[in-house]
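Q: Entry one of two.
A:
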Amino acid sequence: MENRSIIVVSFVLLPLLFTTISAQLLRPDFYRTTCPNLESIVRSAVQTKFQQTFVTAPATLRLFFHDCFVRGCDASVLLATGNGNNEKDHPDDISLAGDGFDTVIKAKAAIDSNPQCRNKVSCADILALATREVVRLTGGPFYTVELGRRDGRISTKAGVQRQLPHPTFNLDQLNSMFTRHGLSQIDMIALSGAHTIGFAHCGRFSKRIFNFSPRNKIDPSLNFAYALQLRQMCPINVDPRIAINMDPTTPRTFDNVYYQNLQRGMGLFTSDQILFTDPRSRNTVNLFASNNAAFQQAFVTAMTKLGRVGVLTGNRGEIRRDCSRPN
């Protein structure tokens, strides 16, 4: 019995072990000789795209998160083989804004226009770099991005099931999901701060403002005046394409106002507001709300850890010639 227990534990730890080994192969200067100007090329391409539409920022940031939480940071979310069975076709991914995908496409084209860099840089690394740039462009921290990821070849709709946090999650559900990827509660709260530039479709939170429970039509944890504003912006039978800002105060600035909103009962999702209403996470929210530097430092730490999740390195995976399809 003792030997069997050891074997079971080993199999459970094996995926995390592979992730740790692969992540150790990532390094900031991975493309130093193969594409020395990579970061400036991506920065220029993303800046041009951002100047065309602000949605570039939240769309790219959300795309990175959704990619890393399903099969790891391998750009599998970008695959579109045309059979309607890719990650991006799942209901949890179908709302990913096209501008995020387009940001990666534009950056890839800019990289490949340089003969030295052509087909040398993975789509997974391009997405990671582009994400850093949109955070910076909206006033967030500039941070070092570890590189050396390779692209995955598999992307299925079924693979997304139960892999992404839902708007109704409580703290235990959030922690359980993030812990699976080696992310702590503080990491989870810091990454939730990305909602400071996020947007959401009305259907994702309509129950909170119209039909929360038999006793309360409006979720009592929601600021009442804010709930009435949300009802005006998202009336019953609203066009499902309508989306609203998740931070009603400074929606275009990457800052700590998201946490200040939580203190006032203005978290759009239940999974946002629970970070303040649950006493186990409230102190961290209060810290980030009062100290933007503390939030940004925690966000950088969490993004670095997120960028290591499930990565393919060495001879695993490939460098895609087209980010939307395997070679």
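Q: Entry two of two.
A:
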Amino acid sequence: MRLPPGLTYLPQFLSSHEQSLLLRSSLLLFQSPRHTNSHSRRLWKNYLRSLPTPVLGEGFPPENAVEFQQGHFDGVIRGYRELLIREGGWGKDDYENEELGKVMERLYALLPPSTPLPTSTSTSAKPIDPPPNLIAHLLHLSSTGFIKPHVDNKEAFGTTIVGISLGGDRVIRFQPVGEKAKEGETFDVVLEKGSVYIQQEPLRTEYTHEIPAVATVHGRQVGGTQRVSLMLRDRLPE
């Protein structure tokens, strides 16, 4: 698999158990009261009542049990749920789970520290919380959800983007912009579950990236299933 300049791909970075652990915590976080409205909470309660035991099991719930948004504020994403993870933003059980904390520390360590490093005045931050040098963001795509070609805001983030893939495989497509667009090469990279990709320069600003709902790579159809990605971005230097 050919990779574009500035992309590092780490397959099977998380074990199956670690994937299940992080996926379950992420899905439960999406259903927390502070990230839902009355309609989405009603859908979730009805789903749990239909189960033999009213708790979330392994994998994804059916899509009619959650509320996906059909339009992003900038028009880039369709069929999605998203949230920012702030200090203290994980679930109570997550903070008591040392194994999950260790997983998150490994993932946070993939980003370089900002220069100078932002400082935190908090004395209550835990290993599972995002450190002050990065922004953590969860994105849940439905089976038909997709992300259109775009370049992340250059004035809002630093030079590194880390994506952790949970659930169904998807293709991420990179295409050059500007003067390179006419003769530059398009790269399709299959993001397998449990993998990590690290996007840096020149990829960060000289290529668009997108995630189609379904794509064909070497005769294989990829996509058409739910996917959660944990996105980590470094902050701009202060």
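A: Comment on entry two: The chain has a mean pLDDT of 90. The radius of gyration is 18 Å.
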